[in-house]
């Protein structure tokens, strides 16, 4: 379930990405992973077919930074390490010239390096690395040389930013445990009082110039019972603006976040934006007179809303700018003093927009069908580095000027990776029974011939405010689309009501209606595939993770059309879910209130109360350490199916939160689902 939170900052660190969700340990491991199923084991070295092994060779660009003059781009490549006992990801930084003449690896070694940031004069590159233990900021000259450690944060650095004059950096660090807490832990007296003992993230500054620990100046700027999320320096270096939520718990960030300032040489924290709802991601204008931020307009919107506002740096009343198409802006900064730059989903693509402070309509700056991401700007926002991909094209890094969009490619990240023939992907539109227009993507089997009926997988995304978009279909993911296509399946990926990318009204259209209108949207897409002689009506399968898992559980209580289903991290019992998830306010927002005020609503939309209708063989997959959708949700459904003698199996992934974080475990999911579907659709394993 891709529950939406605050938008990521341009310089969001690898650590912040990996810790976006907070998880707790499961109490009991019910299943141990068996050997990897046939689709991986039989074809590990086959480069003529799509396999999980091949998909894992398509690596991700996990961050970028552009030099102030736009001449250089630093970017992060994240790749899996899976030799022997290894099952982890490693990130390293590369450096490319904007004209494409130079592209070299900048950091090396067994430890990850990420979050690159050029100094204001462009001569140094700082980055976060784990080479000395906890994540710390290191720096070195852009032209090479010996890197040196800048921070020695006890619990590690969360994110950082250069001061405008390049003499310091500001960074966030989570409070360390007190001596008393450490002693209690050592003596095994470390009981926890839930929601009353917090470790907050706060702001610090330190000198950047190479120095010994005894001469480096470190200054703490903030303290108290609030948790800092993101921050920005004023252009003159005198002030830092930051957004903060009441506690570190992810749930509090769905309902409340405020914006404050603090002098860069220490002093009192001053509230700038303090109102109900989430106001976040502040950025100073180039002249320092204004601050742009995203907000909810003084009302908590846990379902998800990010409009763009500006406020005078000295305070006052925020001014709402013109609404963007999806009203889910991720803010990247300013261009001059009259334009704010944001990105957001647009149907199945994503684009960069210029939002004038005059109140004029936003202007789309990027073009084409596909995903524009990892935005990095030069000092005056006249140039941009970005990643681009579409369904048939893997991700690479590009540059463009902001006045005229271009797609000048800097990297050939996958030129040596085999690309077998792909199952083609098309974007479709259909109409639900109530007249709602729905969009989705269909990926046909590899080598598909028109008017041939084939097995169809209905794949439901998470969220519910997730979206299936034009990302590369051959890359690694929980559901590896081209691997299913290679095995003879068509894969339908709809964006039912509740999805992002189609505006606020569509995103809110399934509030208090989970399992009804959205279900009809999905089934109308299946019907279209049957009517077009693509899907064989007797060979339908269903899968989904998180909210997609919810829809899987609910659908099998309403229809027996699917011959097999796979519920990943599903939530079949919304009452027990709201009492155990780490983001109850998100679910309560969708249900229209607390469950004790409306049991009927929660029960009506919970599959567990209709479980005796299920006849579909349903597989249950779950992370053993999932705090977003606790594994008890999967157990409830699995055990009820067992008692009903409905074919089922439950697989728990060890050390796994809300989706696999280890590459070997990620590679297990698609082959395991394929085995389940092949078995219950009566197909020979691996047949086409």
UniProtKB/TrEMBL annotation:
SUPFAM superfamilies: alpha/beta-Hydrolases (SSF53474), DPP6 N-terminal domain-like (SSF82171)
GO molecular function: serine-type endopeptidase activity
Protein name (database record): Peptidase S9 prolyl oligopeptidase catalytic domain-containing protein
Region of interest called Disordered, as start-end residue ranges on this chain: 169-190
Signal sequence segment: 1-41
Residues annotated as domain Peptidase S9 prolyl oligopeptidase catalytic: 480-682
GO biological processes: proteolysis
Originating organism: Longimonas halophila
InterPro entries documented for this protein: 6-blade_b-propeller_TolB-like (IPR011042), AB_hydrolase_fold (IPR029058), Peptidase_S9_cat (IPR001375), WD40 (IPR011659)
Residue ranges, compositional bias (Basic and acidic residues): 176-190
Pfam families, per the entry: PD40, Peptidase_S9, Tricorn_N
Superkingdom classification of source: Bacteria
UniProtKB keywords: Hydrolase, Protease, Serine protease, Signal
Keyword Nucleotidyltransferase: no
């Amino acid at each position: 379930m891709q529950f939406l939170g605050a938008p990521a900052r341009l310089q969001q660190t690898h650590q912040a990405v990996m810790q976006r969700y907070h998880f707790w340990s499961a109490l009991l491991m019910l299943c141990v992973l068996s050997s990897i199923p046939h689709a991986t084991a039989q074809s590990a070295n086959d480069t003529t077919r799509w396999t999980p092994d091949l998909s894992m060779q398509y690596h991700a660009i996990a961050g970028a930074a552009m030099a102030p003059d736009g001449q250089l781009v630093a970017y992060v490549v994240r790749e899996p390490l899976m030799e022997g006992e290894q099952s982890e990801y490693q990130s390293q930084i590369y450096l490319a010239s904007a004209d494409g003449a130079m592209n070299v690896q900048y950091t090396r070694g067994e430890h990850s390096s990420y979050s690159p940031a050029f100094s204001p004069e462009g001569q140094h590159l700082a980055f976060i690395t784990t080479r000395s233990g906890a994540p710390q900021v290191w720096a070195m000259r852009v032209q090479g040389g010996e890197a040196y450690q800048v921070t020695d944060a006890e619990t590690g650095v969360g994110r950082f930013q250069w001061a405008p004059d390049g003499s310091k950096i500001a960074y966030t660090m989570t409070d360390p445990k007190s001596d008393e807490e450490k002693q209690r832990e050592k003596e095994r007296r470390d009981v926890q009082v839930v929601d009353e003992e917090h470790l907050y993230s706060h702001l610090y500054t330190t000198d950047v110039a190479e120095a010994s620990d005894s001469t480096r100046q470190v200054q703490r700027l903030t303290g108290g019972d609030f948790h800092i999320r993101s921050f920005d320096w004023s252009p003159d270096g005198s002030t830092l603006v930051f957004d903060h939520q009441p506690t570190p718990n992810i749930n509090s960030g769905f309902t409340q976040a405020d914006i404050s300032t603090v002098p860069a040489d220490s002093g009192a924290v001053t509230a700038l934006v303090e109102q109900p709802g989430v106001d976040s991601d502040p950025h100073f204008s180039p002249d320092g007179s204004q601050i742009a931020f995203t907000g909810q307009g003084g009302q908590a919107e846990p379902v998800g809303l990010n409009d763009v506002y500006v406020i005078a740096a000295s305070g006052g009343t925020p001014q709402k700018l013109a609404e963007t198409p999806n009203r889910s802006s991720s803010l990247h900064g300013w261009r001059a003093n009259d334009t704010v730059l944001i990105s957001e989903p647009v149907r199945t693509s994503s684009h960069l927009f210029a939002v004038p402070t005059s109140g004029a309509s936003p202007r789309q700056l990027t073009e084409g069908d596909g995903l524009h991401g990892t935005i990095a700007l030069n000092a005056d926002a006249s140039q941009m580095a970005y990643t681009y991909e579409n369904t048939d094209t893997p991700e690479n890094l590009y540059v463009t000027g902001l006045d005229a969009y271009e797609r000048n490619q800097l990297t050939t990240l996958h030129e040596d990776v085999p690309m077998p023939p792909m199952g083609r992907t098309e974007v479709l539109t259909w109409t639900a029974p109530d007249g709602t227009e729905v969009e989705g993507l269909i990926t046909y089997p590899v080598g598909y011939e028109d008017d041939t009926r084939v097995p169809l997988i209905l794949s439901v995304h998470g969220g519910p405010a997730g979206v299936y978009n034009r990302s590369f279909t051959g890359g690694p993911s929980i559901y590896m689309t081209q691997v299913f296509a290679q095995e003879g399946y068509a894969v339908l990926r709809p964006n039912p009501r509740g999805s992002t990318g189609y505006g606020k009204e569509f995103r809110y259209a399934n509030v208090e209606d989970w399992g009804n209108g959205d279900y009809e949207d999905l089934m109308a897409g299946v019907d279209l595939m049957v009517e077009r002689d693509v899907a064989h009506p007797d060979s339908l399968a269903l899968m989904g993770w998180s909210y997609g898992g919810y829809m899987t559980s609910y659908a099998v209580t309403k229809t027996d059309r699917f011959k097999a289903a796979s519920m990943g991290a599903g939530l079949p019992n919304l009452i027990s879910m709201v009492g155990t998830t780490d983001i109850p306010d998100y679910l309560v927002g969708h249900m229209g209130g607390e469950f004790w005020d409306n049991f009927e609503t929660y029960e009506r939309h919970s599959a567990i109360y209709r479980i005796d209708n299920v006849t579909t063989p349903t597989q249950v997959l779950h992370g053993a350490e999932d705090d977003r959708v606790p594994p008890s949700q999967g157990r409830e459904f699995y055990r009820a199916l067992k008692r009903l003698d409905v074919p089922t199996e439950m697989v728990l992934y060890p050390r796994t939160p809300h989706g696999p974080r280890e590459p070997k475990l990620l590679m297990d999911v698609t082959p395991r689902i394929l085995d389940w579907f092949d078995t219950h659709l009566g197909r020979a394993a691996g047949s086409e």
